[in-house]
Specification:
17% strand; 7-stranded mixed beta sheet; Helicase, Ruva Protein, domain 3; elongated; 2 domains; 9 strands; 11 helices; 295 residues; alpha/beta; Rossmann fold
């Protein structure tokens, strides 16, 4: 880093409103990047901040598309990495970003440093990538305050990318991977597990960040799955209502949500025991119920 860059960084005060907790532990940074396949091209980095992950990605010759909404951070990243042909920056909000819009080929149709891959040559979600075939991936140390919203944006529009390697507050990560019959199981668990295989890879202590947060973080690796054509927005609204009554039996919940004729049909041929509670149903059963009740 240049002297000017170091001076700039020294004057930078992290914003609590933006959830800025920057990774400073080199060993953790390397472990996170190690979770990416070597053929990942390009790597979409969400919330690049001071560029700790960016620097490691570029050092390993990955092509990086940095997504950074904070103007000062974006200016710093451009100053630090702008001359690297493998780096590009989008000053956008990842919570509302259409990630599929990033996967567009250059005019020549040939992938070169700085180009972005065409959807036409992507490996479909859930299909193992053959050796030597490039596939886009996602990585990010997500701001705690919007991490779940970013995950939903990826589920809606980013499933052509695989894997996603993302850092969350540990409690959020535990909700993502939670199974039925647990306190943590809920809307986030159901939607995430319908969209991808989810694994907590390791935890990260507060001392690995500056400023140090008061909580532990966790790195989660997602492998998008082949899924039916799901209206993720409508499913999320449905599950929000279902899990807002998580201690009630499903029969009572559905009675409060559906017309009498639909309830009568469900009771005549129930897809599961209507005495069960929302936290006792698997993600697949929740999706099947949602699709039945939308007809």
């Amino acid at each position: 880093m240049s002297g000017a860059g170091e001076a700039w960084l020294g004057q930078w005060i992290p914003s609590k409103a933006w959830g800025q907790n920057y990774l400073i532990n080199g060993g953790v940074i390397e472990k996170i990047v190690d979770l990416l396949p070597v053929q990942a091209r390009p790597v979409i980095e969400i919330g690049s901040g001071r560029g700790a992950l960016t620097n490691e990605l570029l050092a390993r010759r990955f092509e990086v598309i940095a997504i950074e909404p904070h103007r000062e951070s974006a200016a710093y990243l451009t100053h630090r990495f702008g001359e690297d042909p493998h780096f590009s920056l989008r000053e956008e909000d990842a919570t509302t970003l259409d990630f599929s819009s990033l996967l567009q080929a250059g005019e020549s149709g040939v992938l070169a440093p700085g180009d972005i891959m065409s959807p036409g040559v992507l490996t479909p979600p859930g299909v193992l990538t053959p050796p030597g075939v490039l596939t886009p991936a996602v990585i990010g140390n997500l701001p705690y305050c919007v991490a779940a919203r970013i995950l939903f944006a990826l589920i809606r529009t980013g499933r052509a990318c695989s894997p996603w390697v993302l850092m969350f507050q540990r409690e959020v990560a535990q909700r993502i991977v939670a199974g039925p019959h647990s306190r943590e199981y809920g809307l986030l668990s159901v939607v995430a597990q319908l969209a991808a295989g989810c694994t907590i890879c390791f935890h990260v202590s507060p001392g690995s960040f500056s400023p140090a947060p008061k909580i532990t973080s966790s790195v989660v690796r997602f492998e998008p799955l082949p899924t039916r054509n799901v209206d993720w927005n409508a499913l999320s609204v449905w599950l929000t209502r279902i899990f807002s009554m998580r201690r009630k039996q499903m029969g009572n919940i559905l009675t409060s949500m559906l017309p009498a004729d639909r309830i009568k049909a469900l009771r005549a041929a129930p897809p599961f025991s209507l005495q069960l509670r929302p936290e006792q149903l698997s993600p697949e059963v929740h999706l099947d119920l949602f699709e039945r009740c939308r007809v």
